[in-house]
Amino acid sequence: MRPTTSSVNLKRGQAMNVIKSVLPYLWPKSRKDIQLRVVFAMVALILGEILGVLAPYFYGVSVDALAPGADENQTLFMLTAGAIGMVVAYGVMRILSVGFSQLRDVIFALVGQRALRQLALETFRHMHRLSLRYHITRKTGGLSRVMERGVKGVEFLLRFMLFSIGPLILKLLIVAGIFYIEFGFIYMAIVLGTIVLYIWFTFSVTEWRVKVRKEMNDRDTDANQKAIDSLLNFETVKYFGAEEREALRYDESMRGYEAAALKTSYSLAFLNFGQTILITSGLIAVMILAAMGVQRGEFSVGDFVMANAYMIQITMPLGFLGTVYREIRQALVDMGEMFELLGQPQEVIDSPDAENLSVKGGLIEFDDVSFGYDPERIILKKLSLRINKGKTVAIVGPSGSGKSTIGRLLFRFYDVNKGSLKIDGQDVRDVTQASLHASIGIVPQDTVLFNDTIGYNIAYGRSGASRKEIINAAKSAKIHDFIISLKDGYDTTVGERGLKLSGGEKQRVGIARTLLKNPPILILDEATSALDTETERSIQESLRILGSGRTTITIAHRLSTVVDADKIVVLEHGIIIEQGTHDELLSLNGRYTKMWQSQESETEMESQY
Fold first, then answer.
1. Which fold would CATH assign to domain 364-607?
2. Nearest CA-CA partner of 553 in 570, 565, 563, 539
3. Which of 93, 113, 278, 292 could form a disulfide with 55 if both were Cys (CB 3.0 to 4.6 A apart)?
4. Cβ count within 10 A of residue 408
5. Which residue in 463, 510, 464, 505 sits closest to 485, CA to CA?
6. 12-342 in CATH: which number?
7. The whole model's pTM is what?
8. What pLDDT does residue 78 have?
9. CA neighbor of 147 nearest in space, from 340, 308, 354
């Protein structure tokens, strides 16, 4: 089980758990080449820091070499040569330090990018493995932001924790040691005391600022979700003239973001000013002591310059500590949210000994099945239904009777609470989901298309399908002539969710896609209920072609579309109350007859207008 984190607070132990979760991606046991890269990058990092810290030493020595009366026994040429040599050594140290730092980045780049890619891919795959129940209770825009911020958080953590915090700690330890050796204990104590106070102040203020940043994240996610919802429902917004209403809803979220952003700006100014006071106080204290030492003859001018150079050297990276710590802290929160997402359990999983589904004919059996999305609200109640191979069974009934639930159970979006669901004698819980999904095709009420070409959307039915197969599927779905009449033909883009196509055209693309998949079992989930009567009739022929020779479950609202079904099942409150052919059900003069007469009356009234 992966560690989970709170989206509000990230305690120290939780932060360590998040870091531990990332480590396997940086040190994969099966990849020796990646491990070597990490080792070489760390060696380059250490060498770069050591050479960088040595540079001020040569700088101080060169100043002493140039000072009047530095060494009366040396000639002017020797003094000049010595000073130049020290300056050259100083320059070489600086160049090598930067060179090793860049080499470190080059070596580690592959490691970091590979870790990012693996984490992003694992998160993406996991989101697709989560149940339908989980996705319908979460906002897609919010999930995408969690994934986006989490992956960016990993990138930031790698870059700054390994290449900023790590080198900074190493540099501070080396500089403290040099101060102790060259100047004495009091100097080292001042440096360490300044650093400790600086870090304590920075971390304390930043902890408070992280909470404000979390509030900014929440407001940002809320605003982003409102924007996505509004744009996805662009037509609905227009229908109701709600542009200003949507703008006000969006602005309300942005107003909260603005308030949190202002708090962040004000607290940043306080943090920066406090840091400046602390680090400048330490710098002044060291310089005063060094100046007094020069006056007493204990130190040379070069020692004074060296002390100043070392203080400046540690001041610069410390100046970024607050920003780095805050970003690392926030990165850990963002990563925690991502690992919390990865920690969400799969509701529907393959059993350890699951085998591939073997469809020999397509016999479907619901045996005493009970199911409810909520334990307190049972949808299907002890339902038993047999659908013989190659037959078409229509399921009708009022809204909420459980019609679509049957299709979802067959596709195994959910597992039954009681009873069993079998295909050719195989319980769907004992077969792999991949083989089950491959054996079932579905044409839903509203076919949702990818924002890509018509050809791509049809080809989505079967990976690797040839152009000829795509065209044949389109012809069978009676949409080929329409496609070739378009300027770009099969390369015509359909727009977001297929909005450039009419409802009938989208349904035909969906039918072609399912024809290309060529599954032995077919579910038509109110496939024409969203269409007008004329379009529905024209598509019925394509649906008959699609269902020919397959075991077909037709979930329908309009009874006129299922009169030719081999069997019609009438559901009410999750219970089968009638079943038989169209004529048999009419002869019963029961619930089906009333539904039929009601719809016939509506059809007659519509025909008068």
1. Rossmann fold (3.40.50)
2. 565
3. 93
4. 18
5. 505
6. 1.20.1560.10
7. 0.61
8. 41
9. 340
